[in-house]
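Quick one, tokens below:
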């Protein structure tokens, strides 16, 4: 995952792992939440600042009181 996050091509990762084809490498590659968020941010409407949910102050106050 660190190689993938660093931008190393999956074909190179497959070669390093000794896989015969890139298809056999794909089953091991799973994007973490940061990678998924980065991908979503590339597709969002530029008018929207964030896709991430921001709770209200009153909700946070309530949750902290539990």
């Amino acid at each position: 995952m660190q190689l993938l996050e660093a931008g190393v091509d999956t074909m190179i990762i497959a070669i390093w792992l000794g896989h015969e084809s890139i298809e056999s490498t794909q089953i091991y590659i799973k994007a973490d939440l940061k990678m998924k968020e980065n991908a979503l941010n590339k597709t969002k409407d530029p008018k929207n600042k964030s896709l991430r949910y921001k709770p209200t102050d009153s909700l946070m106050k309530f949750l902290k009181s539990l």
